[in-house]
Queue: 2 jobs
Job 1
Amino acid sequence: MRAAATTTLTFEGRFARDFEELAVPWRAEEAPDPQLLVLNERLAVELGLSPAGLRTPEGIRQLIGNLVPEGATPVAQAYAGHQFGGYSPILGDGRALLLGEVTDVHGRLRDVHLKGSGRTPFARAGDGLAVVGPMLREYLVSESMHAMGIPTTRSLAVVGTGRPVRRETMLPGAVLTRVAGSHLRVGSFQFARVNGDTDLLRRLADHAIGRHYPAAAKAAQPYVAFFDAVIAAQASLVARWMLVGFVHGVMNTDNMAISGETIDYGPCAFMDAFNPGAVYSSIDQGGRYAYANQPLIAEWNLTRLAEALLPLLHEDQEQAVALAVESLGAFRGEYSAAWLDGMKAKLGLGADAQNDVASPLAVDLLAMLEKGDVDYTSFFRSLSSAARGTTEDARAHFVDPGPFDAWVERWRALAPEAEVMDRTNPAYIPRNHLVEEALAAATAGDMGPFNRLVDVLADPYTDRPGLDRYAGPAPDDFGSYRTFCGT
Ligand code: AMP
Ligand code: MG
């Protein structure tokens, strides 16, 4: 435990020092008029930082890398990646920087990272910048995921830069200060592999094991154990997304974190009506990253990770492939088990409920929700009342409640527990129409709706009076929702 909160960020610079091949020392662009739009005070305290200190002009300049503590080396990280299935050997942080690592009050090493901090050598045609709306969007959605207990990168602050940015129109610029277990991605390993540098690959894997999967170091085959641990973390993560109706939207291999945290909130969205084919991203025209495809895509990405890790798995390539295939074979079972455990909790059933009873019960329910265009989140929330004996609210979601009534009989026979459901099914999620409303107001200079929404989402499992408008689906005139990437 650190003794007292400090106003100065101190960074360990471990990645910059240990991975020169992957780290280009770089400086954030100077913001002409930095204004703090939102600060995550609880996260600041967790990092051992003083919120009051971060609110000073000096603190704000530190938050966006315009004031760099002595000895710190901000770097742009190199990585490769498959984007929509196509391979790019060099992507890297085009508009982002790793300021360095800090040790939080629990003794955990966390990355502090900037998004929207100006062009880097990886910027290609991009302007290196970010705008207020999408950065606040990442803040809102990542903090909501955290409040629901889903592993994710965190958001420490969003600072308006005072610099207009050209998009379809001119928009206010911003920098997001992001905190993560690490920014190692599947693409980081792909980068090390494509350059044929097995030493780098090994050091990278050792670093990842040290930070995220220390138990793997003690295994008989540490790199196989490491790969198994990443597979397990992703199986569990994607199951959590599916259970809350989250569509990441751009599951490229550079957007999949080795830590098992949700990372890179771009065109993501939560679905209202249950729809396996839900796609929100304007650039995902083939529906590659549709809701129901996410587990398959995670498995595909892990296969790309396996290819990158082969030289570490075994010196004989054939044996390395055999080991990778065996490890990958666990993904589907792990995913299904995590999903079914989560679904049991959503239905108020104990982990000891029979799988061959719970599984068809869940599948039949989802089919009814899909057929009836039923709002996923509010339906599950209303099901608690049904467990308590009042089916009205849940029934009201169906035009023809007949099949639902029959389903309720089967479900009630398993004695569902309403309290478990209340703790599992969120009442408040970042619904698209609420997010858009908050971001539009913020872009026009009014942070009120955003701050209120952040407060509501911070406590997703407690119904509070007066918050009805946050708990229901979009009004009919909201239309079909599209999200935009790279903004
Ligand atoms: P993303 O889809 O946001 O994960 O980004 C994919 C790649 O494009 C990464 O290498 C980003 O750093 C880069 N990139 C995205 N937007 C910009 C931008 N405005 N300027 C420079 N690079 C960008
Ligand atoms: Mg990315």
Job 2
Amino acid sequence: MLSSHDHVVVVGAGLAGWRFCEALRREGFAGELTLIGDEPHAPYDRPPLSKHVLSGKWSLEQTVLAKPEALEATNVTLRLGSPATWLDVATKTVTLKDGTAVTGTHVVIATGVRARLIPFSADEDIYPLRNQADVTRLLEHLERLSEGATVAVVGGGFIGAEVATALKARGLTPVVLEAAPLPLISVLGPTVAEWLSGLAPQHEITLRPNAKITDISYNGDGFSVLFADAGDLDVDGVVLGVGAEPNTEWLRSSGLELSNGVVVDLNLEAAEGISAIGDVANFLWQSPTGEERVRIEHWQVANDHASQLATYLTTGTAPATMVPYFWSDQYGKKIQMLGHPKPTDDVQLVSGSVEEQRWVALYSRSGVVTGVLALSQPRALMMSKQLLESPTSVADALEQKPWA
Ligand code: FAD
């Protein structure tokens, strides 16, 4: 367990890294605490970037998590603007690109993920959306477009749908290009993807499924999107929302197990004195149907990891089972999910209707509830959390009806 003689070095000054620093102090840790981040900014929140910031309702300052008073109260040494390039596991030394090194007694890896890129001819002028630099660049481009200009959004997943919604709110004309037959099919499964597929057109946003893009070129004035079926589309801007990849390159020669993120155990430990949390952690999760190895890119999971690890390191209490949660604001609706079901799980509508666009659905596997998904039914969703806190049969869930 940590004592005041310890020095905890946290790499990655995002949500998980910052929340962990706060939680560690809350747990009474009085030792040295260093937070290393490659971005030049104090920790900020990402969900507003694709919602309030892109739509023009918020400034970037409103996304800041670590305000100066909080930084001071947390007594953390910030090392910003230079990425970690190497970790020596034996000595707990983190080397930075600027040539300096920080040695601690415990290292917490919280380097998150980065936007996946696709090598199109115009890739320099195509915008992903993961961080403040991305949104700043994208906003500069959007401000040069005239009202109603067409912007292609490549990828109809959560980020793509939120970006399209924000672009429409700015008076632009987004066109969502989705390679799969339905957006979100690989995450939520075919039934729910079908139920949600009406949201974009009802919000007057064009959605083109089965859009297999072969290239996007830029002629200095506009973009041409080329499709595998030989069709093309001329647009004024392109935003990329095609998923993310864990930031683990800096750990390649560390000897830690890297496989779809940093592999950690039930206590979020990758090796003695080395832990990983948030989007980058490939962790063991006690799901309602048994232990699963997962990496989950949800805001709430990053928060939960941060507080669980702080408690574990200061008190030795093993992390309790968590109920993963995410939300997404898209096409004028709120989608919320509890649990982490597989797209192949069974699904049934238990409240509301697809037509009214207010409903609750249960996911299950072998008759056990694995997830609850709600469209514009926030209260019903939260009331259903008990179904995932311990294994619950579908029969029991249908009898209890906590969503009603
Ligand atoms: P991050 O917040 O990504 O922080 C990691 C930090 O580490 C970054 O600053 C990164 O630059 C830095 N870093 C990387 N490599 C290095 C290195 N070598 N050295 C030093 N620093 C490094 N989740 C939801 O549940 N609901 C939502 O509606 C939602 N909306 C989102 C919208 C957007 C636009 C984005 C990008 C994400 C959204 N998320 C949402 C996901 C949520 O923001 C993430 O799950 C959360 O930020 C994960 O926190 P993290 O600390 O693990 O990673």
